[in-house]
């Protein structure tokens, strides 16, 4: 069964198969049904979910027109509308749980009505859910619809659209100079971008727009290209009326733009896109570079810093410096594929962790790298990276204990199975030995560099016994909850000290310079030798005394005296990249304006720097 308002399925591709929606489903730890069940179970005690549910219910009461336009048929019986409303509710609640940074976007109940009408089988909730996830997580930047900073990526694109109109259209349509571009672009973006064109374009054009957005590589900047072209078509039509002597009124132009968009005649969308692409010369790489240039603006940097300062341990000066370093790394680092480059890639994160935390073993590096959130393409944003680095560098024992728990809690169930408890014990084991021996690893590390239960069975068994004792209170499941684990860490001196000290150990070899620093190493204790060699002791070793000895090794100076850890400056760049950063940051062209032509000015600088930095 197909909707009366959409194109025949034979004339278009299956969005679920042709887009990345299927890949998102296969990569997810939960199915759509599990997301629905978990959302309904957790909404009672979750403030964010409760607020999202209230807003969803308000919007569901107003989607009658969208249900009638996209979902209802002439032969549908009375009261069928409630069936579709329930389907929209389930999809929206499930996605609110999946993407907590975005939550529910006001007005997207109408978007789901359109999506449910365009799945391969009629009103397929699962397909609609994953297609919707593909749009939010892959087509748009991860902060485009974010709760905090509020719609940050959306405001970046609003600014970009305003600059594109001023640069590309105003020279040809001088009447645009008299209007308030910032106001008009903000209002248009709220209508066009937030609702993803649903309700603003005729359905005959809306379907191919969505198909292109989902299935084509250039769909990530289609909304900008289409908005730019709509403004030009409407402005050309107004200029052709001959009333060019009087200045244009901003509110009048805004109304004309909306009406002309909704009244567009049936047209070949591909021809329309090719025409717009030839006129405006936009590309995915150019758009991402222009977005990065806008994010370097003091207004956007300060906005993101204000939000981050509420949750991280960096001050405003550190955040602004790290933000500059992040943008530099994204623009000038050597990257094989720069398409959809909205942040830094995983290989950059791996190198950063091995450089900043050389004492942590390879298993911890791998798990921390995988734990830092990224978008569907693999980009890690500044917002997510800084939150992770804050905990790793300056986190409280409670924050670090929570992080360790999350590294093994794959299902985000807030409780660990016996297998996951064994993995947590293995991480603690590696943490203790890395602190004691000062062992450094390279990335990717060899298997022998990873501390496992095979080369430290006694210490692993000690931690595992502790975890099992905590979980013994759960007689039925024998599982360890997050709260039990955190409380145990906070009241157990050995574990409290272990999570407090991690990452603060003095480096004995700089991974960048390769120079070894000479330090006095006191004679190893017999217990430490057994830990290193993996030998199983016959008698019971007092593990609390052993861990105390390991801690003294980590924080003793070259004469064996206890000393506090040295203060450390956090940086995202290697020494070689810092030199290039310091040179380029002195020039005004370090971050170019978004209105500059990325094809002519920007790319040459990027390629030159990429060849100079390894």
Automatic annotation (TrEMBL):
Gene3D superfamilies, from UniProt?
A: EF-hand (1.10.238.10), putative rabgap domain of human tbc1 domain family member 14 like domains (1.10.8.270), Ypt/Rab-GAP domain of gyp1p, domain 3 (1.10.472.80)
Location of the Rab-GAP TBC domain: 1-217
Residues spanning the signal sequence = none
Region entry Disordered, spans? 509-535
Database matches in InterPro entries: EF-hand-dom_pair, Rab-GAP-TBC_dom, Rab-GAP_TBC_sf, Rab_GAP_TBC_domain
Q: Which domain of life is it from?
A: Eukaryota
Q: Which SMART domains match?
A: TBC
Extent of Basic residues compositional bias = 514-523
Task: Please give one Gene Ontology molecular function term for this protein.
Answer: small GTPase binding
Q: Which is a Pfam family this sequence falls into?
A: RabGAP-TBC
Q: Which PANTHER family match?
A: RAB GTPASE-ACTIVATING PROTEIN 1-LIKE, TBC1 DOMAIN FAMILY MEMBER 2B
What is the protein's name according to its record? Rab-GAP TBC domain-containing protein
Per the UniProt entry, what species is this protein from, by scientific name? Pythium oligandrum
Q: What is the lineage of its organism?
A: Eukaryota, Sar, Stramenopiles, Oomycota, Peronosporomycetes
